[in-house]
Amino acid sequence: MRILHWSVILSASSFSAAFVRSRASSSSSSSIALSHSSSSSSSRTAEMNDIADIAKARTAISQAIAVGAPAYNRGDVRGCAEVYQETARGMIDSRLDIPASLRDRLKSEVDDGITDTTDFNDKAWALRRVFDSILEYQPPIVPRDSSLATELTMEPFTPAQLGEARNVMDSVMGGVSQGGWIPDAKTFFGETSLRNNGGFASVRWRFPNAQNWSYAKGIYIRGLKHTDPQTHTFRIILKDAMCERVRLANFKAIFSNPENSAEGPLLIPFDAFDKMEQMGRPMQGSPAFNPSTVTEIGIMAIKPSVVGAFQLEFDDWGLYM
Hints:
The chain is α+β, with helices and mostly antiparallel strands. The protein has helices spanning 23-29, 43-73, 77-93, 100-112, 120-136, 159-162, and strands at residues 154-156, 166-169, 178-182, 187-192, 200-211, 218-222, 225-226, 234-240, 249-255, 266-269, 276-278, 281-282, 294-302, 308-313, 316-320. The chain is elongated.
């Protein structure tokens, strides 16, 4: 288990030390910037509200870490746990619109509460893991209005172009997740497991020769449906020639179909693949994805949004111009 050295992440200047012990003070402090955005019938306004709520949650979490982490490192583990608990309670009470899976995990910890018999170290760890998931959350790309399809040119991938799919599971890291691909049904299925620090399953198509997709704007998926639409998100994986020079490097974009409607296409622009990753960690200063030298494409299911059984299917996919 890695030691918590969170104090180096953020400054504690925005919070007072009184936050650590005072429930009343912490409740008001944790409500900073937590007022819930008013709803709107406009989907664009709703999307903006979702983004704003995530930003508010991240602000509250950053402030809590700035106080709780130094407390933990001084040996005040209970103080750290209480700071995190009150921040989590403030986020739940303020009804911030955060992903359902993260909200449920947060609410579970809040409902468990803190008593004199609580294992404060476990509590601090449990809340910090949820906080980290919220800090790392990226809103998925979702299907667009079906009328857009008439304005686009779509070039479907062909079996000859993609070749045979291969499974890449977390077994490369000691995990036990399973998955597979049914070509005729265009279905990706499996089960992710957290055992042995695992948690992902993927299917990949590797091109024998680099593909030049620079004439296209991005990748489309049409007729997308999947399990647990309000919680599950998936990733498109791309590799270019530069990734081949860096071990275990690739680009990813997150997508989902929260309404499970098959009417509109999912459009993933190449601009969305803006950060190279190595084993899931962003590589600072790396070049953006180069669509003129594509060497691999894949689909991934990964924790924390997909834990357990999953299935994703679609009618067709390819490039859009």
